[in-house]
Design goal:
This protein is α/β, with parallel strands linked by helices and about 110 residues long. The protein is globular and about 30 Å long. It is about 35% helix and about 30% strand. The protein has one domain: STAS domain (Transcription Regulator spoIIAA, 2-Layer Sandwich), CATH 3.30.750.24. Strand 1 and strand 2 form a beta hairpin. Strands 1, 2, 3, 4, 5 and 6 form a six-stranded mixed beta sheet that branches.
Length: about 110
Amino acid sequence: MAAFIHEDAPEADILHVLGEVDLANADEFQAAMTALTKGAGEVVADLTACTYMDSSGLRVIALAHKTIGDRLRVVIPQNGSVHRIFEITGLAGQFNACENVDAALRRRV
């Protein structure tokens, strides 16, 4: 089970992802990300509270990155639950990974 919470910050739209992201809720994750990527601003996907992510969740992030490019930043804490999947796949470097939300908001493209 997961929750996707939108925060409208002055620097970017933030999507906080809580819980597990898998095939069962990937469509909900996709809808939340798509809503944010339609705008012209920067988007932060905060995975700090994400406890599990499978390839369907990675696909959602990859599609968002394909849509908005470097305007997407992904918060993947080193000690976070999902860090390993990004490390194994080598995707952290492609998605403007940041350690925390503050660092993501400071990063400019």
